[in-house]
Amino acid sequence: MSRCRAAILISGSGSNLQAFIDQVAEGRLDLDIAIVLSNHPDAFGLQRAHNASISTVCIQHADYADRESFDRAMAASLDEHKIDLLILAGFMRILSPWFVRHYEGRILNIHPALLPAYPGLNTHQRVLDAGDQWHGSSVHFVTEELDGGPLVMQGRLPVTPGQSAADLAARVQAVEHQIYPKAAALYANGSLVFRSGRAWLDDEELTQAMQLTFS
Ligand code: GRF
Fold first, then answer.
1. CA geometry: angle at 8 spanning 7 and 14, to 5°?
2. Superfamily of structural domain 110-140+150-215
């Protein structure tokens, strides 16, 4: 099997992208980051990619009339790079059904909550407001349902009473930097696949996410 060629899609800081860059550089993650794509020219993640000599492309959604034409422009660029896996890492655009079908089973996302709890935005504050004892992050395959595709891996951590949303977000991000490359590695080595709308690990259906607990 040839080495998995990944595209990482970002909109902002790219701390998850950095975790991938570091793990690949250290030989702990066996995939190639073929391209980093941003929809914002000033996303700091683009600088991270430049520093690591990774090709980048910026396609600004504001330049396109509608969601699908933006997505088709992204796909035209990604397809030039013969991508096996799309890694959404803080990419803040909803993908069109056309795009999701074009890359069916080849898109992973990370969401900062223990899905199916708290899809959408502002997850950390919502967890604090609800008084939950546990929080975390979820890696899932992307389907047309927003934050609703089959779960792959979750990192859980206990909520510290009295903690601010910003501090909680920082702890969740540290968890993300560990679980996201692990999940991508399983895809890259062929263990993790998407089939019939579900996630499979070594030919067993993943009926629930792999769980890792952090302190
Ligand atoms: C992460 O917390 C991820 O869960 C969410 O967007 C954030 C991206 O952060 N989807 P970064 O740009 O990787 O630092």
1. 160
2. Formyl transferase, N-terminal domain (3.40.50.170)
